[in-house]
Amino acid sequence: MQARDFEYVYDTKAEKTVGNEGLKAYTRKVFNYMMASMGLTAVISYLILRTGLLSLFLRVSANGVGYTGLGTLVAWSPLFIIMYMSFSRNITAKGSKIGLFTIAGLEGASISLLVLYAGIHNAFQAFFLTAILFGSMSLYGYTTNKDLLGMGSFLVMAVWGLFLVSIFSIFFGGVGIWFSYAVVLIFTGLVAYETQQIKNIYSHFGGYGENADKLAVFCALNLYLSFLNIFTALLNIMGNERR
After folding, report:
1. Are 129 and 232 spatial neighbours (Cβ–Cβ below 8 Å)?
2. Model confidence over 140-150: pLDDT tens digits?
3. How far apart are CA 144 and CA 151, in angstroms?
4. In this structure, what is the dihedral angle of CA atoms 121, 127, 133, 134, given to the nearest 10 degrees?
């Protein structure tokens, strides 16, 4: 599930009119928000695994391991926050930052469950592989002169397809390991598109003001979600192989 997607036609003439230093500063702002979110997710996940708080989110019964009521709430809350942020017309830059970091904190609890399932060693491997994929595609999206709007629109539709499949699987049985591979491919491609969107937004709004700051948070949220989806999909793949 992606946050609201802000699409703009790539304008090379407009890009030439903006200062490179201003664009770099705006891009750094976006990635600073994203990295802060990733850091918060990692810290929350680590604390839950190290302090035994995992029992608050999981319960063990004769039927196996399942979510507690709190675990279910934590697992689904990020989706509702994303939907609110995406469709609310009155959300401010400050409100969007609160939403971003709230999502990051909640995802920390969910990630801890996957790390427990896949193992610490696999978690480190998945993280470094995700960082390589993310960094490579982000660099491509930032440096390419090719308009990625068409590719991005297709991939966003593919994300909605994955979302519908995941909802369908809740009622009619789980999906196969192919689903995790599809998530890796689709969200890896989205990283390039989302990075290029930073340049497009800057060319239209500049790097300062309420709208520019709010859109920077949304860009950071999209990149954060792409990184997280790639990472969790790789964890599922590795956890499946481990099992």
Report:
1. no
2. 999 999 999 99
3. 13
4. 180
